[in-house]
Amino acid sequence: MRHTYLIARREYLSYVATPGFWISLAFVPIFLLLAMALPLLLEGASPVRYFAVIDDTGHYKQAIERRLEDNRIEMVRTVLKGMERVPGQEENATRALAVLDADGSVGEAEALAGQQARTALNAIKENHVLVAAPARTEEALRPFLVGEQQVDSPAGPKPLYAAAFIRSDDSGSVFIDYWSAAITETSLKSLINRAVRDEMRTEAFARAGVNKELVQLINDIEPKLSSLSPEKTAENAEVTASDRAPFFVAVFLAFILWSVVFSVANMLLTSTIEEKSGKVLDSLLSTAPVRALLYGKLLGVAAVSFTLLAGWTVAGGIAATIAGQFIPSEGQGLSVVLTTVADPGLLLPFLAYFVFGYLMFGAVFLALGSLCETLQEAQTLMSPLIFILMIPMLALAFVMKDPESPILAVLSWIPLFTPYIMLARLPTDPPFYEVIGTTLIMILTTIIVLWAAGRVFHAGAMHQAGVDYFKKLLKWRKAKPAKT
Question: Which stretch of DSSP H or E encloses residue 54?
Fold first, then answer.
């Protein structure tokens, strides 16, 4: 036991006693904040795109203008609904929303909103702005589209991002020629297409004798959908963010579990190869038994992983606290997520699954490392294991769509996948026999893997086997005479 403790302490200190470990850990909250802010930063950094419409039909351009105005109204409505949850802004935001819903007057709604709301509304950026076409033909517009000339806009001379030529033939078919140097960006092209399509449908109804206003009224009709849970009381049956949070958090924790197990197991592999090639492993074996060396390495790197998890937890709390200063939430958003993460029903299984997942894969990686002298040799043994590790990662992508899928239930019974799949399925309340059965099989498999890894590690560490160990083992089994 003492030898195991000393090896574990050596492994732990070899990682955490380095400045790089703590520097990288300190950067975690910074990366988390960047991950939260990056989508907003990218959206805010996107330039305003100016485009022109040359409409030979004479009326589809107006439909595109209305679509742009409707988009502006929806953005204003979103901001005002958010301000309704901000203390001190509720009354003004509610009045502004009532005006906006009544006649769609953005200007009057902005005037009624409070100062804080007006500041937020002024920050709304229009991604696409329609400008007058500087020419009527494709060839004449080409210098503007390739950036050689600029068009006049309310903000001064600007590059022309795209131009749409709309024409129709005698049969009533409408054609849109969309010209733009940005061949991969589709949002503006989709906006123009939807606006023209809806206008064409409205005209078709009009030709059939149906009033345009009636068509618009019918198009605006939609059901008021409520998502209700039969597991809640009738008065509080509506599904809220608090109800959905466990599913998202469980998948997130499963992903974190996979990432940590894979990273720390890979640490065991590389360190073992380095120590074997540098004869450090031989020196350790002269002072400690092989089993003590195996278990000491596993425990030492396990302690490193728990230090990482503790650091990430603190970093996540710091990032969430900072983000919470800018994201108003009353029982929603970040507070719901943090409450769910702290739920013992998810946190305790996460820790238990981590222990067994780490022991299984850590022992395998450690055994493989003992057979190799270089990382190049390890790659030949690692390839099958990497493919196996990717299966639960791919399965996690489907858990949110159908967490009760029979395929996921089958994967849960495969011990190597149990820690990740079962953790993600816990919020669906799987049958009790599945939880107990998969856990017992996982524990039994862990014991078998530790025993087998000890045998392989002993052979590799004592230079009795190399990368061809498993090939020779199979040949020996085949050559072994049958008992009579």
Answer: strand 49-55
Tell me the pLDDT tens digit for each residue of 64-110: 998 888 888 787 777 777 666 666 666 777 777 777 777 666 667 66
What amino acid occupies position 477? R
Determine the Cα–Cα distance for residues 484 and 477; give it in Å rounded to an integer. Answer: 16
Question: For residue 100, what are its two tokens?
Answer: 């906006």
pLDDT in tens, 335-393: 555 555 566 777 788 888 888 888 888 888 777 777 777 767 667 667 777 788 788 88
Tokens of 391: 């299966």
Q: In sequence order, which residues have a C-beta less than 8 Å from that of residue 254 and are 6 or more positions away?
A: 392, 396, 399, 420, 421, 423, 424
Distance of CA 39 to the CA centre of its chain: 12
Element (H, E) at 51: strand 49-55
| Whole-angstrom distance, CA of residue 416 vs CA of residue 81 | 47
Tell me the C-alpha to C-alpha distance, in Å, between residue 294 and each of 223, 385, 463.
Answer: 63, 20, 15
CA dihedral of residues 99, 104, 106, 109 (deg, nearest 10): 0
Q: What is the DSSP letter of 129?
A: E
Q: How far is CA 340 from CA 106, 323, 335, in A?
A: 39, 17, 9
Long-range contacts of 436-439 (CB under 8 A, 24+ apart): 437/413, 438/412, 438/413
Cβ-defined contacts of 186-189 (< 8 Å, 24+): 187/127, 187/128, 188/49, 188/51, 188/128, 188/161, 188/162, 189/162
Location of structure tokens 């309704």: 84
Decide: 427 and 347 in contact? Cβ < 8 Å. Answer: no
Two tokens, residue 159: 């590059």
DSSP string, 133-155: -S-SSHHHHHHHHTTSSEE--TT
Given a contact cutoff of 8 angstroms between Cβ atoms, the answer to whether 71 and 194 are in contact is no
Question: Phi first, then psi: what are they for 408, rounded to 5°?
Answer: -65, -35
What number of helices (H) and strands (E) belong to the chain? Answer: 20, 5
Alpha carbon of 387 to those of 85, 423, 453: distances in Å? 48, 21, 20
**DSSP characters over 68-128:** HHHHHHHHHHHHHHHHTTSTTTHHHHHHHHHHHHHH--HHHHHHHS-HHHHHHHHT---SE
pLDDT tens per residue, range 454-474? 777 777 666 655 555 555 555
Q: What is the secondary structure of 225-248 as a DSSP string?
A: ---B-TTS-GGG-B--HHHHHHHH
How is 190-220 classified by DSSP, letter by letter? HHHHHHHHHHHHHHHHHHTT--HHHHHHHHT
- In order of 14, 268, 296, 348, 482, the CA distances from 18 in angstroms are 7, 17, 20, 30, 55
Of all helices (H) and strands (E), which one includes residue 339? helix 334-341
